[in-house]
Design goal:
By secondary structure, the protein is α+β, with helices and mostly antiparallel strands. The protein has helices at about 1-20, 30-40, 95-100, 165-180, 185-210, 225-235, 250-260, 270-275, 330-335, 355-365, 380-390, 405-410, 445-465, 490-510; strands at about 50-60, 70-80, 110, 120-135, 140, 215, 240-245, 265-270, 290-305, 320-325, 350-355, 370-375, 395, 415-420, 430-440. The strands form 2 sheets. Strands 6, 7, 8, 9, 10, 11, 12, 13, 14 and 15 form a 10-stranded mixed beta sheet that branches. Strands 1, 2, 3, 4 and 5 form a 5-stranded antiparallel beta sheet that branches. α4 (about 165-180) crosses α5, α6 (about 225-235) crosses α13 and α13 (about 445-465) packs across α14 (about 490-510).
């Protein structure tokens, strides 16, 4: 009997500990107040009202780099619109700002409409809030407690019955899954980098052999890659095999389209135009086989520095250390073509670092570079995280005057104002160069494939947007904005047919009215 009672006692203590852990953190009133405060400060006080709030759990967090610790509180909530508002507008605060403010993944917000929400509409949010205890034991909200993006290559099972070259490929995948944080230099880094590139080429070749639609996306933790993965998953549900091929970015995707290695690619509109028109002074040969399919969402040039750097304008980059993006990325093309470096005298040129955004942010915080240059959708999740962790991040305006008359013939840039509060701590708007994320293809791609992908995009609606929120920006009204490269003939015919059907439906509805 004694042992039975001991077991019961231990079980009871364990249950009590679990209940205590679940209740760890501030009470409901504090949580609701913090969520409403985030909504008011990120947008405006008269836009959202918290209707219901339910705490669903909690978990501790610890930041190894800073030593900070606290607790994440998970919740479900319903928000009511107090005014009409579009969370998918091309210019202004959008659902990306909302998701970051309330601690939700893009798939954790439902109820927003591709066009606009009306007063009284409701959003359902599954999110989390971070808190730490101060010296008095009070719970203090931590809006800077943001998880850093991680490369999430899937782990590979080693128990599959494979032989020969398949076994070699499987072992290689397992090795790469274990070596995500390889050193930047040295023999090992070179081998891992080449192995990763080889596996990607093999995967793409296999997809083409199987007759799948192929789409060039982007690097890990980037918007292009996330959209590509969401689109591939959505296509699979509709029995349309689509392979999203990870890449460095726009330049690599455009190059692969040129070579006939891809059916589609995500390419910055200006990079697509550069490849199509060509520029001898930049060693770009015209590629007249490239075509546009659709404009997806707006993007902006971001020039970012820290307050203590003394950098206030692009002219202050003289002899400074600046990250401009890896070779093959659209960010690097913008940095070079817009004259951030080339307009300066030789002895004044910045020290350029050709690294990806994740490394650039780490080096900026470590003081190893003075500024970073990236072209990204607004808001950029990576820059949101940076701004939330620090109070000294500064977004600099990039004036249209940097695009001189010669460059204006090549690129369809437009002045874009990024509103205040788009990023945490951003207390003033900044103006920069705007462009669009374009879906590109080759004139040699079959008409059927163009129609299949356009059907997918226009039929996706909220379902695709729930997988990746930027899909909600895609609409028939915006699918030709900012495109200077001719449409694929099949896309041209598709849009005409789509518009005609919409007009006929509108006439039929009007005829049924009494």
């Amino acid at each position: 009997m004694g042992s039975v009672w001991r077991i019961r006692l231990l079980t009871g203590l364990l249950a009590l500990a679990l209940l205590t852990g679940c209740a760890r953190g501030p009470d409901g009133e504090v949580l609701e107040g913090e969520l409403q405060a985030r909504l008011d400060s990120s947008f405006r006080e008269d836009l959202f009202r918290l209707q219901t709030f339910r705490r669903t759990g909690s978990a501790p967090f610890h930041d190894v780099e800073t030593g900070d610790s606290g607790v994440y509180v998970y919740y479900d909530a319903v928000l009511e619109f107090l005014q009409d508002y579009s969370l998918t507008q091309w210019r202004g605060l959008n659902i990306g700002t909302l998701a970051f403010a309330v601690g939700a993944q893009e798939a954790g917000i439902s109820g927003f409409h591709p066009r606009a929400n009306q007063q009284g509409d409701r959003l359902t949010v599954h999110g989390r809030l971070a808190f730490s205890e101060d010296e008095t034991g009070a719970w203090v909200p931590r809006r800077d407690a943001v998880e850093r993006p991680l490369t999430d290559d899937p782990a590979v099972s080693r128990d599959l019955p494979v032989r020969g070259v398949d076994a070699v490929l499987l072992d290689t995948r397992a090795l790469l899954a274990k070596e995500l944080c390889e050193p930047e230099e040295g023999r090992k880094a070179t081998i891992l980098r080449e192995l990763r590139s080889a596996v990607k080429r093999i995967d793409l070749a296999r997809a083409r052999e199987q007759g799948m639609l192929t789409l060039g996306s982007g690097p890990a933790a980037g918007t292009y890659r996330e959209f590509g993965r969401a689109l591939a998953a959505f296509a699979e549900q509709r029995n349309l095999p689509l392979f999203s091929a990870e890449s460095v970015g726009s330049v690599e995707n455009a190059s692969r389209l040129q070579a006939g290695e891809l059916d589609f690619g995500l390419v910055q509109s200006d990079v697509l135009q550069l490849f199509y028109e060509g520029r001898e002074d930049q060693y770009f040969i015209p590629s007249r086989n490239l075509r546009s399919v659709a404009s997806l969402w707006p993007e902006a040039v971001h020039l970012v520095a820290l307050e203590g750097s003394g950098i206030r304008t692009p002219a202050d980059l003289k002899r400074r250390r600046v990250a401009i993006g890896k070779r093959g990325s659209g960010s690097r093309v913008n940095a070079v073509m817009l004259g951030v470096a080339s307009r300066l005298e030789v002895e004044e040129l910045p020290v350029v670092r050709e690294i990806d955004l994740e490394d650039a942010i780490s080096q900026l915080e470590a003081g190893e570079i003075d500024a970073l240059f990236v072209t990204a959708a607004v808001p950029s999740p990576a820059l949101q995280g940076l701004a939330a962790r620090r109070g000294d991040v500064r977004f600099l305006s990039v004036p249209m005057s940097l695009v001189n008359g010669r460059d204006q013939r090549f690129y369809s840039y437009y002045p874009m104002t990024v509103e205040e509060r788009t990023y945490p701590g951003q207390d003033a708007a900044f103006t920069t160069l705007g462009l669009t994320a374009a879906l590109a293809t080759s004139v040699n791609v079959a008409d059927e494939r163009i129609e299949q992908l356009l059907d997918l995009l226009l039929a996706g609606g909220e379902e695709l947007a729930q997988r990746y929120y930027r899909a909600a920006f895609i609409s028939r009204e915006t699918m030709r904005l900012g495109l200077a490269v001719p449409l694929h003939p099949a896309a041209e015919r598709y849009y005409r047919r789509f518009d005609a059907q919409g007009s006929e439906q509108g006439d039929a509805a009007e005829g049924q009215q009494p």
